[in-house]
Design goal:
Blueprint (H helix, E strand, L loop, with lengths): L1 H22 L35 H17 L6 H4 L7 E2 L5 E5 L4 H6 L6 H14 L7 E4 L23 H18 L3 E5 L1 H8 L5 H4 L4 E2 L12 E5 L2 H6 L4 H16 L3
Parallel strand pairs: 2-3, 2-4, 4-6
Antiparallel strand pairs: 1-3, 5-6
Helix pairs in contact: 1-2, 2-6, 5-10
The structure holds uracil.
């Protein structure tokens, strides 16, 4: 039995390794519906990856192994220029059993140095929000970004402060399949998009964050087939709260909506 499980896990690992090649291929049509709306920040259609093969191995064990392989792939990724200048790829952090995935824009200086998302000032505020409103730690959820490497104004000086810039549509497009693959493995009930970049990219809309926040949407990519949408709740980016504390009240309201959602029986 143990040997059969081991063989099945190895088969899945080999299958995932073949996805490596697929990442640099033109978009594959894996049957996933892709948002049609054209928005300036919405990257060109992502290249969805095929769903992982069914396996006899226990789901959690396979997910952990598959995610480790994907993380390795991201670590070696050179699909865009960000992969050359970055100090560390910032894959994601948290539990693969998370019911909620928080998605930010991209790593900054501190994240680039530590290889973990949201560890700078914004991250400390995010941790505080998680704890005070939701009673959760970062290890109870999953936290990732739209792009996995630090977009820098001056890539020659990764040690410089004040070097952050938003990711370009090309960088977003290159990195986007990684996030969808993470979501496929984690199978969260919902995503919280932090700020306008993550919201525009994931919902394929071009409206300001203050207009769209505080409402539930369906993730337009059907990762788990028709009729099984992942719910999306946009809210302000913690960096925006640091700049303008008046936005905290709305964010607290959004987090209470999230708490209610997570407390609903499945
Ligand atoms: N801002 C983001 O959007 N992501 C991080 O990981 C850190 C800051």
């Amino acid at each position: 039995m143990k040997r059969a499980l081991g063989a099945a896990a190895r088969d899945v690992a080999a299958y995932i390794r073949t996805l490596d090649e697929n990442l640099s291929e033109p978009p594959l049509n894996a049957g996933a519906a892709v948002p049609a709306a054209a928005a300036p920040l919405q990257a060109p259609s992502p290249a969805p990856l095929p769903a992982p093969a069914a396996s006899a191995a226990p789901a959690a064990a396979v997910a952990a192994e598959d995610i480790a392989l994907l993380a390795e792939k991201v670590k070696n990724c050179r699909r865009c220029g960000l992969g050359i200048a970055r100090l560390n790829a910032v894959f994601g952090v948290g539990t693969y059993k998370a019911r909620v995935v928080f998605v930010g824009e991209g790593p900054g200086f501190q994240e680039d140095h530590e290889g973990e998302p949201f560890v700078g000032r914004s991250g400390q505020l995010l941790d505080k929000i998680l704890e005070t409103v939701l009673g959760l730690k970062r290890s109870d959820v999953y936290i990732a970004n739209i792009v996995k490497c630090h977009p820098m104004k001056s890539p020659e000086t990764p040690e410089a402060h004040g070097n952050d810039r938003p990711p370009t549509p090309e960088e977003i497009s290159a990195c986007r399949p990684y996030l969808d693959e993470q979501l496929r493995f984690i199978k969260p009930a919902c995503i919280v998009t932090l700020g306008s970049v993550a919201t525009k990219v994931l919902l394929g809309i071009d409206k300001g964050i203050s207009t769209v926040r505080g409402h539930w949407y369906d993730y337009p990519v059907e990762l788990f087939g028709p009729g099984h949408p992942i719910k999306v709740l946009p809210t302000y980016h913690p960096a925006a709260l640091l700049r303008n504390p008046n936005l905290k009240r709305d964010t607290w309201e959004d987090m209470k909506m999230l708490k209610e959602f997570l407390e609903k029986p499945v």
